[in-house]
Amino acid sequence: MSNYDYDIVTIGVGPAGMVISAMGAEMGLKVCAIEKHKLGGECMNVGCIPSKALLRMAKVRHAVTKFPSFQMEEMREPEVKNPFPAIQEKLDYINVHKYGVKFSKVDKIIGEGAASFVDSHTVQVGQRKITGKRIFICTGTKPAMPPIPGLDTVDDILTNENLFHQETIPESMLIVGGGAIGSEMAQAFSRLGCKTTIVQMDPHLLPFADQFAGEQLEKIFKKEGIDVYNNRSITRIEKKDGRVILTTKEGEILEAERLLMAAGRTPVLEALQLEKLE
Ligand SMILES: Cc1cc2nc3c(=O)[nH]c(=O)nc-3n(C[C@H](O)[C@H](O)[C@H](O)COP(=O)(O)OP(=O)(O)OC[C@H]3O[C@@H](n4cnc5c(N)ncnc54)[C@H](O)[C@@H]3O)c2cc1C
Q1: 50 lines ligand 1 (CB under 6 A)
Q2: Residue to mutate (ligand 1; options 23, 36, 42; most atoms within 8 A of CB)
Q3: 271 in ligand 1 pocket by Cβ < 6 Å?
Q4: N or C of the chain: less Cβ packing under 10 Å?
Q5: Distance CA 246, CA 153 (A)
Q6: What value does the CA radius of gyration of the chain take, rounded to a whole number of Å?
Q7: What is the pLDDT of residues 6-50, one digit of tens each?
Q8: Which residues lie across from 158 on neighbouring strands?
Q9: Contact 242, 255 (CB under 8 A)
Q10: What DSSP state is assigned to residue 136?
Q11: How far is the centre of ligand 1, averaged over its atoms, from the C-alpha of 240 (Å)?
């Protein structure tokens, strides 16, 4: 008989926490999954799934614009201007009907606050203390904010965390970062009618991927009207008269309605009190 409440405790229920807790429960272990926000983490709620849904909508819209005789079966006209409620509806469905079922054997603590360590085998959530033989840290990452002068004057910065909760597609958007997130969103928003511009310090799009792939992607982006500025050093970003102004050391002064920061990720560890671990 174990001295612990659970064989496995996972902190965070994104893809990592989901796999560990669902597999653990299937293997007959006693599992508790703690999530401060929503099941599915970034991937399900503000990452992979909504971004792919938006890309799909954008692809349909692009096809319709290119070939006007094509019937717009997948997308109703209001969704072109505001695709986000339709995406949210699908996410809510998946959350209840797919994820809920998958985790029926797991004890879940959802939306009761961030978990922190009391010691190596004890976690606290609100007033509750839970012990586990193995505690898995699955707390993921959040958008990194580079220290660019003037950035604090932009009071409505977009990141993947609020991007899918907008009320309309902006008329124009500057995107800092040409990695997977910046590139995907540049194309999705562009195809939905937003003028998108990528500015990045790396020499080609998708800097962690093959250079050839990044260069091919840039060619396609240019054909679609997406501007790409590689090898740029951003000296200032500020909000002036309701517009975002981005200045580079190389001499560009770029302007747009909104700013999307997609310039890397930083681990989410602050609430955990890791110093309590032996
Ligand atoms: C726009 C976008 C598109 C993407 N597209 C893809 C894609 O197509 N394919 C792909 O493979 N990846 C994609 N990703 C990356 C993918 O989302 C991440 O790699 C994945 O979500 C990481 O999973 P995770 O479980 O490690 O962390 P997360 O999904 O970030 O989950 C961590 C969870 O931990 C919770 N948490 C944090 N701290 C605590 C705490 N102290 N107590 C309780 N809970 C806590 C958080 O609320 C969160 O729910 C995309 C990301 C973005 C932003």
Answers
A1: no
A2: 42
A3: yes
A4: N
A5: 12
A6: 22
A7: 999 999 999 999 999 999 999 999 999 999 999 999 999 999 999
A8: 260
A9: no
A10: E
A11: 33
